[in-house]
Amino acid sequence: MFVKFTNQHFILLLQLKITYMQYSQLKAMWSITKASLRAITRSPSAMIFSFIFPFIFILVFGFIGNSGSKSSFKIVIDERSDTSNALYQAIVSSENFKIVHYPTHAELESDLNKGRLAGIISITKNISGNTSAYDLVLKSSSSSNDKWPQLKSMLESINNAISNKTFANRPNYASFNFNPAVDVAQVRAYKTIDFILPGQLGFSLLSAGVFGVAFMFFNLRNTLVLKRFFATPINRTFIILGEGLSRIIFQLITAVVIILAGYLFFGFTLVHGLQTFFDMLILSFFGLVIFMGFGFIVSGVAKSDSTIPPFANLITLPQFLLGGTFFSIDSFPKWLQPISKAMPLTHLNTAMRNIAFEGQTLWEVKSEIGILLLWGVLVYTVAVKVFKWE
């Protein structure tokens, strides 16, 4: 993400008319911030990668919605079910079902409420004295309204097939107990935009933090702007703070636009309204500051403009593909999931989704924030060692 620095910083240097005794580091830092922010907003590449590119993805997935159909349905077989019967064997062997298992009941409930799971099936022996040998029970949620009607029909067909062929002239093999008014839990609809928007926001922050900072400081050195800054009384720390603050302001404005556009036009879920909105902005700030550390590393190790993109892509591309931007990391092979879970973008995306849809607070996603902070310590430790002023 190349930001061109021409006259803005040189004009700033000429405007530093305050004498050394009256010099204010904070005022100088704010002047740098404003000049850098103007340069960012006038850069086409900064606008494309930070705002337009993620926004296009949000529009596409927002219009697509949840209209896509699936060839198989993810279901859970209740652990108390009887598995020594023909109905269970027929369900397990059917290509229309994908049997999944969850380590905890909380994870199961989460996926059921988000519509990732078509339903929970229970098969038990009938001890009520009725003619059917088994009881078949289906539980689902309103988030799976596009799945459980078909799932219900498939289960009925399997039950009828077993009853009519294998056990002809006998009562139904299983008594199918399903009442949508009772057995379909009414929950918030988990829409495609609820998954995609946090991922695209995270991608925008990652791209801006790495590419933006890398190109910015490399060009400040290359055009001797930093060297001219050194001729003024401003402290080097305030130079970095000023330039970094401009990037933070621009990206937080971008985050506001992305979140509000998703909420107003595509029904993106903000469970607690403004509180959720501001929590997402705080998370965006944490994520951006950490990703900017990667940008400082790239600007320090790059030898020329042409070497910045390869170094930056080594950091951003794996996270973009494996950090849960477009797909849940649960869909990846098991050997790949630990790698995905180690990436900072994965934890930022997870925290964003938990806060936006599930209504968790910042304290409740403290484990995700803690891992991000650990990444921050590691990244800035390396950045301090490789960063170059000249």
Descriptive notes:
This protein has 15 helices and six strands. It is of the alpha/beta class and 390 residues long. The chain has two domains: 7-64 and 191-386; 73-185. Strands 1, 2, 3, 4, 5 and 6 form a six-stranded mixed β-sheet that branches. It is elongated, with a radius of gyration of 27 Å.
Number of domains: 2
Order of helices and strands: HHHEHEHEEHEHEHHHHHHHH
Distance between the termini: 21 Å
Helical content (DSSP H or I, runs of 4+): 55-70%
Shape annotation: elongated
Q: How many DSSP H or I helices?
A: 15
Rounded radius of gyration (Å): 27 Å
Strand count, sense and barrel status of the largest sheet are: 6 strands, mixed
| Average pLDDT rating | 79
DSSP, total strands: 6
Structural class: alpha/beta
The parts where pLDDT drops under 50 for at least 5 residues are 17-21, 66-70
Indicate the proportion of strand residues. 5-15%
Tell me the layout of helices and strands.
Layout: H1 7-14, H2 25-41, H3 44-64, E1 73-77, H4 86-93, E2 97-99, H5 105-113, E3 119-125, E4 134-141, H6 148-166, E5 174-177, H7 180-183, E6 184-185, H8 192-222, H9 225-230, H10 236-266, H11 274-301, H12 308-322, H13 337-342, H14 344-356, H15 366-386
Parallel strand pairs: 1-2, 1-3, 4-5, 4-6
Antiparallel strand pairs: 3-4
Helix pairs in contact: 2-10, 3-8, 3-10, 4-6, 8-10, 8-11, 8-12, 8-14, 10-11, 11-12, 11-14, 11-15, 14-15
